[in-house]
Write a structure and sequence with these properties.
The protein is globular. By secondary structure, the protein is α/β, with parallel strands linked by helices. The longest helix is centred in the N-terminal third of the chain and has 17 residues.
């Protein structure tokens, strides 16, 4: 059994190293590791609704609870204008120490064993507010499966970077859904994770 566990961890690490943004077609997707058993939650931040749709699909298919990371100061359309160097998201991108606050928190965090963590890809990264959430939670004893949405960017190192910020938990390879996170792409991925 120990050998099987080590082979699984090794396979997950290899898949994480090779992972790229899937969702556009089945051929782009890395082979996911199977999701572990236990109470699960989908935690996500969504700026435009794409990540929210993907999160809701995952929650429904897995029977997971769901929690939206809601900024204390909501992002306006002007804040999200990445072409404007003075916009809020541009400033957050340039200054990696910025940690926007969010409202509320997950009830009974310690009860969850599996966390699906979703976010949009901004400049190849998770938004700063996702780091705020990650750095404020203990992931010991939890398996984290990142997922992202993007117009065309890959997942890149965003999952690895969040894992380093969290410092705890078992982080599995994630998936990025391009083109807004089409429901069929999300379903295909989550069904492969659940195997």
């Amino acid at each position: 059994m120990w050998k099987k566990a080590m082979m699984g961890i090794t396979a997950a690490a290899a898949a994480l190293t090779l992972s790229a943004c899937g969702g556009a077609s089945a051929g782009n997707s890395s082979a996911p590791a199977a999701a572990p058993e236990g109470k699960s939650i989908v935690v996500y931040y969504s700026a435009t609704g794409n990540t929210k749709r993907a999160a809701e699909t995952i929650a429904k298919e897995t029977g997971s609870d769901i929690y939206a990371i809601t900024p204390k100061v909501p992002y306006t359309e002007a804040d999200l204008d990445y072409n404007n160097s003075t916009s809020r998201v541009s400033k957050e991108h340039r200054d990696s120490s910025i940690r926007p606050e969010y409202t509320g928190d997950v009830s009974n965090w310690d009860d969850y064993k599996v966390v699906y963590l979703g976010y949009p890809i901004w400049w190849g990264e998770a938004p700063a507010i996702v780091y705020t959430f990650t750095e404020h939670h203990n992931f010991d004893g939890k398996t984290v499966i990142p997922f992202a949405t993007s117009y065309s960017s890959p997942l890149g190192d965003s999952g690895d970077n969040l894992s380093r910020a969290a410092k705890t938990g078992t982080w599995l390879p994630g998936e990025c859904f391009t083109g807004g996170g089409k429901t069929d792409d999300v379903l295909n991925w989550i069904h492969s994770v659940k195997k």
